[in-house]
Amino acid sequence: MTEKQYGKLVSDMCPRSPIGKDCFNAFWIGGLICALGQGFINGYSLLGLEKEQASAAASMSLVALSALLTGLSLYDNIAKFGGAGTLVPITGFANSIAAPAVEFKTEGFILGVGGKMFTIAGPVIVYGLAASVIYGFIYWLCLIL
What we know:
By secondary structure, this protein is mostly helical. It has a domain at 21-118. The protein has seven helices and no strands. It has helices at 3-13, 19-46, 51-71, 75-82, 90-103, 109-116, 121-144. Helix 3 (51-71) runs parallel beside helix 5 and helix 5 (90-103) packs antiparallel against helix 6 (109-116). The chain is extended and about 65 Å long.
């Protein structure tokens, strides 16, 4: 069997991916999460917080809600349905930190939860911080020159 024949066989045997449906679900689930965040901002503003403080409180609320739903094993079900719509907002980052911690809790708090909490999000934090330092340095150089 040639490589071309094998490729045709594989493409014939694989089920078709419902790309349109997946994109639609990601769009509306991600939009729903963002609308929930806007609702938090509006609610905190009604309680008397300034816009910047209300935005920070809304971000913290979304992170806490995402971690809670991850701990209750509900976030995975939402992510299976919503796909990338659940990964793009801040809730996806909170889930990436909480999920390994929940998974390894049987190994104890130090080696399990503490040791595995940042296995997925750790590189994102490290490279994001390094990139921000480099960009900040370049920005600083542009201000001086």
